[in-house]
Structure to design on (218 residues):
């Protein structure tokens, strides 16, 4: 069992280490929590630092959280809640496990190596973009996306796991879809499904009754 003095020393060491890391990455207005995580009042920008893992464990971030253009293979350490946008695009992610639970703005994970969306945030207040991955399943996708849903340029053959409601545009172009079954019940903006293997529009959203509302269909 650790002595009290040893516990205090390790706590102080972690505290100073956290301070130094925050200085290195220009993270300001933060609070260090008892579990070693930090809450940030404002944004965090870790873009293009050649990171292979996140340097800290984050709690709540009231601004944007950017960690795109690194070498990340995991999102462990990500904030639990982000008030604005969360960007983790163009990394080496094969899983979204570790993502924030709640993102108030956009969630951007395009340009990775994802095969499913398991681990996605439960709530996304803006757009959800997972273009240019290796998706073969939409499993794990949020049930409701308030903004647009972008998932073109993947390897999908089915829309199983799709959200039930998309508030704005729906883009599923450049996949291998043979059917529109399991589409959202409602799409608030444009519907793009070109460059697939569709033979009919059966299954398209209930609010799309006129042909001109569906754009770029093969």
């Amino acid at each position: 069992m650790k002595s009290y003095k040893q516990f205090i020393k390790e706590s102080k060491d972690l505290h100073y280490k956290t301070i130094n890391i925050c200085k290195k990455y220009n993270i300001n207005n933060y609070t260090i929590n008892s579990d070693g995580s930090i809450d940030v009042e404002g944004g965090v920008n870790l873009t293009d630092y050649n990171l292979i893992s996140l340097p800290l464990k984050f709690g709540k971030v009231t601004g944007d959280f950017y960690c795109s253009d690194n070498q990340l293979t995991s999102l462990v350490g990500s904030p639990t809640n982000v008030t604005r946008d969360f960007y983790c695009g163009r990394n080496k992610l094969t899983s979204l496990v570790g993502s924030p639970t709640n993102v108030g703005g956009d969630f951007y994970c395009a340009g990775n190596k994802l095969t499913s969306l398991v681990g996605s945030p439960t709530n996304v207040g803006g757009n959800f973009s997972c273009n240019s991955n290796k998706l073969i399943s939409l499993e794990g996708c949020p049930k409701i996306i308030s903004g647009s849903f972008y998932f073109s340029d993947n390897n999908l053959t089915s829309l199983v796991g799709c959200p039930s409601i998309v508030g704005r545009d729906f883009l599923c172009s450049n996949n291998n879809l043979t059917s529109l079954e399991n589409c959202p019940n409602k799409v608030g903006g444009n519907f793009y499904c070109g460059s697939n293997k569709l033979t009919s529009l059966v299954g398209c959203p209930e609010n799309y009754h006129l042909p001109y509302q569906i754009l770029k269909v093969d």
